[in-house]
């Protein structure tokens, strides 16, 4: 069982002092893994290098998982929190939300992951919510420990809210072999954060996303040394997605409307407390304006490979 390798690409993260992130989802070959539709790995970077002014989202959940450093989150729901390593921020945009993300000065470099989870049709009009989980459940593995970020993993369930069947976990592995049971109705992705892992005769290096299609019921991970691994998965998402800038919609018109409402300061996205104009490079702005719409009609992201089955 050899995984499909999804290479990461460098993308400048928008913001006053935006950092360069390494993106694997969405990709041309693979727009989603279950409802997971976006994955950025950021850092290591200077601790205070992320300054992202208020910006909007629709039809998705943002999941922020810092590995080192800390991030100050504010949103239009009224949240004002700092997320630290081992803690999970989960914001559900529903019909619309806005938020800011500013990393804080400190001794440790900024490093972490941000995911988006696409919402199903039934949740598109829900009100925006925010939750922070500071004590996620863990489960012992044969040669390590798993922290359950979302969904159910190894019989243990995360308290984080989900709207479709999915899983997200971080594995801290010791040298040796760990057998990992998988839901065969899910497709899965593995990302090596630190260390090196082998699956059969395939070595998985840090950086890329390694994809396993529907039908895989277990994988055996052989850690050559201590290793940190992220696993995500879910049932293949059955709705077509239009993704543009920070919005998800079901049609080109959904995106056009959301963009215009953000530009018009429509109440759909609320407001984020605090002043951001003093940040170097803000040029007196308190929010990020939407870029111009492309000249062509936006189309759904579709897979450029056969339907997902175990490799």
UniProtKB/TrEMBL annotation:
Alphabetized, the UniProt keywords read: Iron, Metal-binding
Q: Which amino acids does the record list as binding Fe cation?
A: 55, 57, 99, 101
Cofactor notes: Binds 1 Fe cation per subunit.
Q: Where is the Pirin C-terminal domain?
A: 181-265
Write one Gene Ontology MF term.
metal ion binding
Q: What are the residue boundaries of the Pirin N-terminal domain, all occurrences included? A: 21-117
Q: Which cofactor does it need?
A: Fe cation
> Gene3D superfamilies recorded for this chain?
Jelly Rolls (2.60.120.10)
Record carries keyword tRNA processing:
no
Start and end residues of each stretch annotated as Disordered: 280-311
Query: Which InterPro entries does the record cross-reference, listed alphabetically?
Result: Pirin (IPR012093), Pirin_C_dom (IPR008778), Pirin_N_dom (IPR003829), RmlC-like_jellyroll (IPR014710), RmlC_Cupin_sf (IPR011051)
Q: Where is the composition biased (Basic residues)?
A: 298-311
Coiled coil (residue ranges): none
Source organism, top-level taxon: Bacteria
PANTHER family given in the database record: PIRIN, PIRIN-RELATED
Q: Which family does it belong to?
A: Belongs to the pirin family.
The molecule here is called Pirin
- From which organism does this entry originate? Microlunatus soli
